[in-house]
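Recall the central idea of this unit: under ordinary conditions, the amino acid sequence of a chain determines the structure it adopts. In this exercise we apply that idea directly, starting from the sequence alone.
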Amino acid sequence: MSFDKLKGKMTEVHISQAKLSEHLGITVQSLNAKLNGRNQFTLEEVVKITEFLNLKDPVDIFFDPSVPNVQQTISKQ
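Accordingly, the structure predicted from this sequence is:
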């Protein structure tokens, strides 16, 4: 997940952590933990964020496009 891209998009559309946490129905502290990688977003939260921030390419933000090392090792065998 690209936390920097999500934070950048929030800044771009002038949405504070307080506003986004209210929209998600979670505390600001909980959102902050998720934005800093200490907790994960639920699928429902990802959908709500995508709609609320009008994200055109949420996959770019919420999913890492690189192949994990485990998959690389398996495919080389």
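The helical segments are 3-12, 17-24, 28-35, 43-52, 58-62, 69-76.
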